[in-house]
Each structure stands twice: as structure tokens, then as C-alpha cells.
Amino acid sequence: MKLSFFGAARQVTGSMFLLELDDYRILIDCGTDLDSSKEEREMEYGMFPFDASMINLVLLTHAHIDHSGQIPNLYREGYEGQVLCSEPTVDLAEILLYDSAGLHQRRIKKIQKSGKLSKKYKSIETEPLYMSNHVKIAIDNFVPLAFNRRFKFKDNAWVTFIPAGHLLGAAHILIEYEKDGGIESICFSGDVGRKNYPLLSDPDPVPEVDYLVCETTYGQRRHSDQDDPVDKLKQIIQENCIDKPGRIIIPSFSVGRTQALLYTLNKLYESQGIKPIKVFTDSPLARSSTEIHEKYSRYLNEEAREFKELEEGLFDFENLHYLKSSKESAAVSSHSEPCIIISSSGMVQGGRVEHHVAENIENSYATILFIGYTTENTLGAKLRSKDIKELVIKGARKEVNANIISTDVFSGHGDLDDLIDFIDQQDPEKLKKVFLVHGETDSMLNFKSIIEEKGFKNIEMPDWGEQFEL
């Protein structure tokens, strides 16, 4: 076996790993790389650092764009095989990839209007911007597999998708390979979910393997907010919509995070006796994702399934309004009564939420509630800086008078304790090698030192493009 790392190598983005079983090539994840060095790599290697037509199979851990976002380009570059994943991942990946294609279409129109191509591309046709037709080709080749069922994908190799939490349909991927009369095994963690998360079941245990590829996003952090999500949300609403007649703007990712938030609001209104304040969900993608969560509710945790049976729905409650048009979205920013506006993106980087923040940032009765991670240099990260007094948004300089608060009770990532629990399922004496990925270098180093103390050896932190003989 050979294993090469072409993404999520000392960074939290662009998951992409190439596993070679003799002459059979498997790509595990094919995600969008947001790292600043990506452009230099494309200059040297092209869209992919391998011949896409030589890949035999793609295995997808989950639908998030940093794991799935380059799959249409893989087909565009000559891949003709299948993408195996869980059933919910097919539907979630479809809406996310079509949404990306829409963004690409708008970018192409902008390029055509300005006449300015990227320096490394000679024409629009060579830009790495796939369209809806490329998404359709890709989705037509997605094949859903059931969780925890061993599937034979070649004469001497099997794959099993194991529930990982984190997102509806997310999986750890276990590959077993018959070699010299014995079986060698490798597990790719994908993104490890956290325990007791709204909607989602806890991650399933993973069997002992020979090789482990483990994410380290929270390799040096624990979730700071340990409150029950319902209690935390009740407190925030009480302080910012009831004690004072204000509005709450919540930047939220449309797939996964918004559904956990809506479900928690539904439980809060049903059980806590708070008068349902108007909630506006301002994201067409979020509405599609919500419908998919309802469709696949059998994959959710027992509490969510029981709640759905009792209330005949997970996300519908009094005073919930889905906004469709841009005109409706613009009107809500000046809504006169206390309300909650949930909109994408979670990092306040483009999307309708940028308008809502711009319209409310100078309002001392407004609160901006962050419920997820924001990368450096995004508007979200700047807003969360405690000493910020003003910033430029939508081309205008504005004073920051709104109340800026954060909670990580809705983070879908397992923290340091969850990662330790994940790796503790392995036998340090049996595990031949551990590869740490999907984390910043400091996070990896901290996690590496912790598991070394537990007796784990041969721990690698691969660089981009590095290959290992297994």
C-alpha cells in the first residue's frame, strides 16, 4: 500500500488522500483547498497533482465542501468512476455542489465583464470553476452505501462506512486489504463528531486497525461552553430579545449548523415557556438542507427521533419564517420587533448575512451571535476581536456598537477529549503508524505529544505531497 497526502496536510482544509493498493487507486475525499499556497501548487501541478483518469474509486467521508468540493472537477479532468458515500451524504453533497456551481457562474460573469483572468489561466475554460453540468455528471455517479456494512469494491479489498457524528451522514472510512494471506487495515477519521450533539448520534466505535489517519482540528482545544444548548440559547434570548427589545443576528453555516440551531429553538419554545420570538431563516441552501434532515431523520439520535414523532416535525415552530427573495431579506434587516435572523455564511464572508450585519452593526440594541469557527482575516474574525471599534463592511466604514457574543455549544467538531477518546479505541502495540491531518501545526504537535504519552509510536505529520509506503 502507498498513501499520499494532497490536502489537509498541516492545515484545516482541502481533505484529499490517495491510497494505492497495487495498481488500484482510491481517492479518499476530494475537497476544496482554501490554503493560500494552493495557487502556487496549481501553477506547478495543474488542478490535481495526479492524473484524474487513473483514479479507480472515490470514497467520501461527508458532504462539507472542504471534503467534497473538487469532485466535479475530478470528472471534468477525466475521472469516470463512482463516488461511494452514505445515503444522506449524496443529497447534502448535491445541494452544496450546485450551490458552489452557482457561485462559480457568478464569478465567471464577473471575470467576463472585467476581462481579467487569473494570471495562471489562459481562458475561462481552463479556470477551475465547474458549472452545473459538471455537478450533474458527478452526482449521477454517487453510490450510497449503508453504514456498518462491509462492501467488497475489488477482489481483495473491502470498505465500511462507520457513523462519525459531526454532520448528517458523516463517516469514518475503514478499508481492509488482503495481502500475503493476511488482512491489513487503515481507517480515515474524516471529521470526528462530538458527543451529545443536537440532532446527531454519538460517533460509533472504530475497530482496531494497522494504520490510522486522524484529524486534529481541536487537537489543543476543549469546547469552552459546556452548557446545555437549550439553556444557553434561552439565556441569550432572554438577555438580548426580552430584557431589552433587541434583535439577534446569527451567522450560521447552512448545512448542519442551522438545523441544530432550529431544532434547539423548537425544543426551547416547546419546553421552556418562552414566547416564540420571530425567527427568520435567510438562506435557500439552509431550507434545502433542513428538508434533507427531515427526510433522513432515521439517521438522527434517539432524542430527535422521539421529538419528531411527538411534535410531528423537527424544525417547524410558531413564528418561524423562511425568506426566499433578496427583497424579503433586505426588508427583515429593519424589522421593528425583537427577532432572530439566521443567515449564511457563518464567517460573515459574502452571502446575505453580510447585509444583515452591515445594517445592524451600529445598533446598540442588536446582538451578533457567533456559533461557529471563523478563519483569520474574515469579517467574522474581525468582529470577534474584542478591541475592534469600527470596520469596513459593504464598502462603508461603520462603528461597532452591536453586542458581539460567541458560543461553541453548536460546534459539530469533536474537541480534544473527543479526539483522545477516538484514538484510545486503538491498541498502541498493534497500530503501526498514525498520520495526523486536518489541523494547524500547533494543534497537531499538542495532540502528538498527548498520544505519545499514551504509548503511541510512529506518529507522522505529513507535508503536502508526501508519500508513505505502508
UniProtKB/TrEMBL annotation:
Stored SMART domains: Beta-Casp (SM01027), Lactamase_B (SM00849)
Record-annotated Beta-Casp domain positions: 258-383
GO molecular function, a single term: RNA endonuclease activity
Top-level division of the source organism's lineage: Bacteria
Any Pfam family hit: Beta-Casp
Gene3D superfamilies: 3.40.50.10890, Ribonuclease Z/Hydroxyacylglutathione hydrolase-like (3.60.15.10)
Keywords: Hydrolase
Keyword Hydrolase: yes
Protein name, UniProt field: Metallo-beta-lactamase
